[in-house]
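Help needed: design a sequence for this.
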């Protein structure tokens, strides 16, 4: 009998593998996506910046963990870090855009306030005669304040050499699908010409027109169809003119039409009393 007894061999259980720690990479990707989307809106530049920094740090940390074998989502972590960097860039761009817009708005308000104060002090808001055409100069103030009512063909001339002219009303037949016309009423069209003889651009898109008809001053609705109703649009460069044709709906017995044209917020509105 052998001196040594052979011990039986039992298979050993495999050592459990360490669980992958992918939390950093996944969190970096999520925060990077949210940060990049926030950066698309300039107002949320601060949120994009905060999330971008966190995503960048967590993404780099997750990538380092993956290199050491502690995680398996190296690509996800790298994507999160890249999105974090993009969020930071968009945050800076958004901040610049937002602050510039605020500065421009403040400058515009200050200019409008200064112009209004200067006009009231100098009395430029009053009407005056300008050769053959009656003119009205000045910016700011209430519409029609100390202003002369103009007649057909007269021009309102402002201190910045912006000139607005309204023609005599002409009878108009609205189209079949016209908007603003009431059956039994009459319609008249008025041609308005804006001449920018100044040195600065004029935003014609801010021009508005209103009208009242008859002795009672009943509001005359503006008519829109395929021929009339197209408003002023775009910017009017110095030395250029723009023309628009307005049509208004009036009671059948109205004998006059008062048309009010307001160039923009910094110019007084001007009125024309037109005989029908």
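Sure. Designed sequence:
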């Amino acid at each position: 009998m052998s001196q040594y007894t052979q011990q039986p061999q039992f298979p050993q259980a495999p050592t459990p593998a360490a669980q992958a720690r992918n939390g950093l990479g996944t969190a970096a990707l999520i925060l990077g996506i949210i940060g990049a989307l926030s950066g698309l809106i300039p107002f949320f530049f601060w949120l994009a910046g905060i999330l971008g920094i966190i995503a960048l740090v967590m993404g780099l940390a997750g990538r380092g963990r993956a290199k050491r074998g502690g995680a398996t989502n190296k690509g996800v972590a790298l994507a999160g870090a890249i999105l974090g960097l993009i969020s930071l860039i968009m945050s800076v761009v958004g901040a610049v855009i937002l602050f510039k817009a605020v500065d421009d708005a403040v400058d515009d308000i200050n200019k409008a306030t200064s112009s209004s104060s200067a006009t009231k002090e100098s009395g430029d808001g009053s009407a005056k005669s300008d050769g053959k055409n009656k003119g009205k100069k000045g910016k700011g103030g209430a519409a029609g304040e100390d202003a002369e009512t103009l007649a057909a063909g007269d021009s309102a001339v402002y201190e910045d050499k912006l000139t607005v002219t309204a023609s005599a009303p002409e009878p108009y037949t609205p189209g079949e699908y016209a908007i603003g016309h009431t059956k039994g009423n009459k319609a008249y069209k008025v041609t308005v010409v804006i001449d920018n003889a100044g040195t600065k651009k004029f935003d014609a898109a801010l021009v508005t027109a209103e009208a009242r008809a008859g002795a009672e001053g009943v509001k005359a609705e503006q008519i829109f169809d395929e021929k009339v109703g197209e408003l002023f649009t775009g910017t009017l460069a110095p030395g250029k003119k723009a023309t628009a044709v307005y049509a208004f709906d009036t009671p059948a017995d109205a004998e006059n039409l008062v048309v009010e044209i307001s160039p923009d917020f910094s110019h007084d509105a001007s009125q024309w009393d037109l005989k029908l």
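The first strand starts at residue 127 and ends at 130.
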